[in-house]
Amino acid sequence: MSQTTAPSTLPEDAKYAERQDPIVRLDLPAGPVYCVLYPDAAPKHVERILLLAGEGFYNGQRFHRIVPNFVAQIGDPKSKEGVNGPGVGSGGSKYGYLPLEVNKAYKNSRGTLAMARTNEPNSANSQFYIVLKDAPHLDMQYTVFGKVLDNGMDLVDQLKVGDPMNVFVVKK
Questions:
Q1: Are 166 and 60 in contact (CB under 8 A)?
Q2: Rounded mean pLDDT, 142-170
Q3: How many C-beta neighbours within 10 Å does residue 142 have?
């Protein structure tokens, strides 16, 4: 996958654009992964993800943290230069922090997208994680804002630290 020449639309996008909820496409080395977003549960976080994806903020970033059977994390712009640089894993967007938005209906189950943060509950910015294996101990502690669709986790499971990603908004 090229970081700079990834197509902004794919033929498969049309299938997902018909859905009611917002959809983003994560272009991973193994292929495209479609994710539904939950504006009903996390309106501020969904708005931020759509804004950043629309600006190309995530394009070329690398997964800087992968904990097997737990999470794969991305969203630090410092990772574009590599994952071993100083401070990688601590960066964010220019937009500041978001308040914690939790909803009992949405769990940190396999395939969930949720915002990473510091120990301060209201410190999410741009970094997010994909849950690789159910993590109920995270429920009500982190903002769940979406979920991987269909067989996308087959591709997510192939991720390695340092793998790049591009994000495109399929439907707002």
A1: yes
A2: 98
A3: 22
pTM as predicted: 0.94
Residues 19-34: what's their mean pLDDT? 97
As beta bridge partners, residue 148 has 35
Sketch the domain layout of the chain as residue ranges. Answer: 20-85+92-171
> CB burial class (10 A; 0-12, 13-18, 19+) of residue 69?
exposed
Q: How far apart are CA 144 and CA 128, in angstroms?
A: 9
Return the minimum-mean-pLDDT range out of 9-13, 34-38, 42-46.
9-13
Name the one residue in this structure whose structure tokens are 């960066």: 91
Distance CA 156, CA 31 (A): 9
Question: Edge-to-edge strand order for the sheet containing 31-37?
Answer: 61-62, 164-171, 23-28, 31-37, 144-148, 112-115, 128-131, 71-74, 65-67
Is 2.60.120.10 the CATH number for 20-85+92-171? Answer: no
What are the φ and ψ backbone dihedral angles of 138, each rounded to 5 degrees? -90, -15
Q: Please give the DSSP secondary-structure letter assigned to residue 17.
A: H
Region 23-52 average pLDDT: 98
